[in-house]
Amino acid sequence: MGSELKFLLNDSEIRLTEVGGADTLLDFLRLQKRMLGTKEGCAEGDCGACTVLVGRLHQGELRYEPVNACIRFLASCHGCHIVTIEHLRGSDGGLHPVQRAFVEHHASQCGFCTPGFIMSLYGLWMAKPKPSVVEIENALQGNLCRCTGYEPIIKAALAASEAGGQAMDQLALERDRVTGWLSAVAPERIETARGQDRAILPKDAADLAQILAEHPQATIVAGATDVGLWVTKMLRPISPAVFIGHLTELKGISVTENEITLGAGVTYSEFQPFIASYFPQAEDYWNRIAGWQVRNVGTIGGNVANGSPIGETPPLLIALGAVVVLRSTKGQRRVAIEDYFIAYGKQDRAPGEFVEAIVIPRAGADRIAAYKVSKRAHSDITATAVAFRIATDGKVIRDARIAFGGMAGTPKRAEGAEAALRGQPFSAESFEAAARAVGDDFQPLSDWRATADYRRLVAANLIRRFWLEQTGDAQRLSRVE
Amino acid sequence: MPNACPAWNERFEMKQDVQVNGAAHQSIQHDSAEKHVTGRAEYTDDLLEPTGTLHAALGLSKIAHGKILSMDLSAVRAAPGVRMVMTPEDIPGENDVSPNGLHDDPIFAPGLVQFWGQPVFAVVAETRDQARRAAALARIDYETLPHALDPIAARDAGMGYVCEPLTLKRGEAREGLDQAPRKITGRFTVGGQDHFYLEGQIAMAIPGEDDEVTIHVSTQHPSEVQHMVAHVLNVPSSAVVVNVRRMGGGFGGKETQMNLFACVAAIAAKKLGRAVKIRPDRDDDMEATGKRHDFVIDYEVGFDDNGKIHAVEGDFYARCGFSADLSGPVTDRALFHADNAYYYPDVELRSHPMKTNTVSNTAFRGFGGPQGVILAERLVEEIGYALGRDPLEIRKANLYQNGQLTPYHQAVEDQILPRIFDELEAASDYHARRQAVLDWNAKGGVIRKGIAITPVKFGISFTATWFNQAGALIHIYNDGSLHLNHGGTEMGQGLNTKVAQVVAEAMGVNIERIRITKTTTEKVPNTSATAASSGSDLNGMAALDACTQLLDRLTAFAAEKWGVARETVSIGEICYIGDAQMSFAEFIREAYMARIQLSAAGFYKTPKIHWNRKTGQGRPFYYYAYGAACAEVSVDTLTGEYVVERVDAIHDVGRSLNPILDKGQVEGAFIQGMGWLTTEELWWDDKGRLRTHAPSTYKIPLASDRPKIFNVSLADWSVNREKTIKRSKAVGEPPFMLGISVFEALGHAVASVADYRECARLDAPATPERVLMAIERLRR
């Protein structure tokens, strides 16, 4: 067992022993290292002013992703390469092409959000040398600018992709050295603390089960996109915090003829290509989950484990008929995901258990769709979300699974609407009946995201939309023509 | 050839012959651009902290209205790291930061809480984290009193006004309405807006000797911070220095709202003898600081079958919050702009600055103007739908003609909207695209489209006449480098760059020679807020005045020393004096050796303006800035969601001091205005707590929300007919109102579901929910 966290910060190696579970990367950068280019705008992962890159090995390949330093716990940086704005430069030691393009296109005004934008676009620049406008917009869903109206930022991003290539990039030059350093970090359990605040990094999944058996009330932290706010906003203690984001066993994705199994630690970004391949009808939906920085760290397992009624993955997973695999020292247990959500704030997860994997049946010939409605199209929390899996035999609906988020205390199937479809003809009348029936399935709340009336109306209309899309009248709003 | 001392009447004009880097009218980059992109631009939180700096946090109320029965702060005091707990008793001077002399803005609620989130105490600890954790330990018992949150509830509850209301009146509105062939009445609810400056409020106070204190603070108004801190410390203003190099955005949110934070830091710093910093968490910032006023507007418009407006009456009920702050001038400006660009023959407009149990609302880009302008646009839309005509025709039929009087009796003399409309209609291909929209909608699909053109006419000047003054200070050091200081503050708009361009051109030197420095009350006293879009108008002129003084002195010195006529002296990067020539540095060295004063303080006050609030008459505005935009949207009639497909905008900045920076202002203001009217919703629960108090719940536009096609151009032919700095016009606020085009385009798409038989009457913000509910209403 180790008691030292180590990671690379730009070009230096950092070794720390006094780290609490609730210590954030942003505070470490700003308060301890006085690296002040990374800004705090919101402390909840929504504005992107604190964006840094985190480099990790994915099956031996070094990959850098933008993340929010404000809700990134320092302990979870173990074995990573953290890259901040201070490290960015061009091969000539001057401005990096992204930075130069920003200056030339007048893409900063007050400048406070700018380092965060630069880091996101730098991440994009590395991942995708010639991005389209839509790809740039997607990459910037987690970055807010209040001054420019974004137009010059998009122009700068396009121009940067024209200027030079990754051969000019400082990080590319350092890649071998960094890869070597990161691969030399051997798995081991690490425990650190600052005062009473403890952080534990398990060695592997078995060790995680052991730790949870010893500390059943521990806070499991994967991407910290929710737990981060418990700390920064609610000032809630999370000790001992058990970090699982580094566990490669929880990162696996396997596909068989009938199902897809993904480890609980798979992030939204990591699963995105699988959505595109196996559930292309849900690609737009997936793209409406949070911003890029959050998708890079937020995990599907965490989204399920945490049980929020407005999480995006549960409606889709319920409609698809997914199964949650829970693990503890006593072994594994499988639960149909819809049964996992018991009530608001209550899930079928015993102390000592953790979500290990999610098994998703493949869709086969079934008709799949998923829609989300929110006040702002991107990086907003769901007002109402719905996913469909409709099975037909010829012209008859054999089975219907329709699951909603934002309509009740848990993500939940629309039983009345499903019943209105099951065994009925695959027709406009059947879906109209389902749309009318869904009004009785839920008693949604009114809050700042939407009124109950709006939620009910939209729920019915999204059932109508499903029918319209199945029958070819697929008018939809889109950023792309 | 540059650069003999210019005669006064030449100084406003463009000088084609000045060949220096960074002269006025050049599109040069923001002076801090390279620091922005490398993360090296220092904001207040980035300044080196003195050893032993402490950190403060506020304790906020958890009710909307009530008496504090008891406040147990013992656990706060006992918390780790705590050095001080501050309540009203700890304030040496008055417990008040009211910017208007009404004494209604306590730092800490003195026994009576008037909104949820009102500061009731502060705690100072060794670290910010300790201070925040300690603040959460307070135990406060309240006696809850009834609260009224919105302006109509406040009116019905008899809450009264926070300040004197205003009536603007010309002609006889009632008679005009009664005699008009047609009439429409309605109610329009217009939401407020959080500034969402990316850099939140922050102040750091460093105690000095005797009664002195230095404050670093993110502020648009250093002089007011100075006065407030002096006031609460009970020391003269001369003991207080306020500094700001730059803000991470202001938008009006740092015109008065930073006073409280600066004062808390200053009181603690003086008491403890240590530097004290306060930086509230974003949620606290959004709960405890004021926003754009929301309005409920009851209107009546009389018109004829040609679409000509005959008379207008309007009652403007504003949610001002618990105190006046800037609500007086904000609600005044709403009335000043309730005509937007249209002539109302008979008119009466009344403001109702309602007291409510919410945070005290404040300045926000446009300062009430947008809420007035959008009412005018509602009126022309109503008329258009009532007559079955394109609202654009109604707009054009009612545009001011030069010489016509506004409701405040100022004659419009610089009308340029007809030309802007012509150019915009052509550039946007409006008429063909409108027909395409109508054809598309006629097919009756799920996605409906809408298109609209809306104009803006915005009055430039502070309506408080005395604020229209500015100072600048220029030093030339004896190595030939220039130090430029003025009373304006940099919040991203590029003010420092523009003023430096004015100085570069006036002095005939390259801009690289000019060092832009932080704004400080030590160098230029008694400044006005950098607000009302006035920054470059006022400070550019003051800097030009300083340049003129220096050039005068230097020219006289050169003529005397070299024995030549003044007309043969030209100062610049190369100075020509008769037959002699030398570098600027050499010349300055000569001047220094000859004991010429190489420093000058410039001053400017805006001419011509006057305003009598009692009579509601005067010329509050030096000139108007104009613009227009054409927006096209697509709306999903199943969910109410929408996409802005295309926007074309033409905006008037006179002869631009820096076209690329001005274009940036127009683009940014447009998106901010669009955000105000679309996804940015302030939502209070029934207990009076603001629940949209962070970016997770309060949704400003993203990159993916901007128009898919966004063509912005400046009316480059426009020249300010008044003698403003280089004949430019102010740009900060006016283009904000171009975002209204998106709102009216949404209304057009919604109206399509009922064949345009009636105005959609969307309330603002037109969230997807409001859009869908309007669609449902019209379908019935």
UniProtKB/TrEMBL annotation, chain A:
A GO term, aspect molecular function: iron ion binding
Lineage top rank: taxon: Bacteria
Keywords: FAD, Flavoprotein, Iron, Metal-binding, Oxidoreductase
EC number: 1.17.1.4
Domain 2Fe-2S ferredoxin-type: 3-88
Database matches in SMART domains: CO_deh_flav_C (SM01092)
InterPro entries assigned to the protein according to its UniProt record, in alphabetical order: 2Fe-2S-bd, 2Fe-2S-bd_dom_sf, 2Fe-2S_ferredoxin-like_sf, 2Fe-2S_ferredoxin-type, 2Fe2S_fd_BS, Ald_Oxase/xanthine_DH-like, Beta-grasp_dom_sf, CO_DH_flav_C
PANTHER family linked to this entry: XANTHINE DEHYDROGENASE (PTHR45444:SF3)
This protein's name: Xanthine dehydrogenase, small subunit
From TrEMBL, chain B:
Superkingdom in the source lineage: Bacteria
GO molecular function: 2 iron, 2 sulfur cluster binding; iron ion binding; molybdenum ion binding; xanthine dehydrogenase activity
The protein's Enzyme Commission number: 1.17.1.4
Domain Aldehyde oxidase/xanthine dehydrogenase a/b hammerhead positions: 38-146
UniProt key word Metal-binding: yes
Cofactor requirement: [2Fe-2S] cluster; Mo-molybdopterin; FAD; Mo-molybdopterin cytosine dinucleotide
Residues annotated as transmembrane: none
Enzyme class per UniProt: oxidoreductase
Keywords, ordered alphabetically: 2Fe-2S, Iron, Iron-sulfur, Metal-binding, Molybdenum, Oxidoreductase
Family (UniProt): Belongs to the xanthine dehydrogenase family.
Matches recorded under NCBIfam families: xanthine_xdhB
The name this protein goes by in its record: Xanthine dehydrogenase, molybdopterin binding subunit
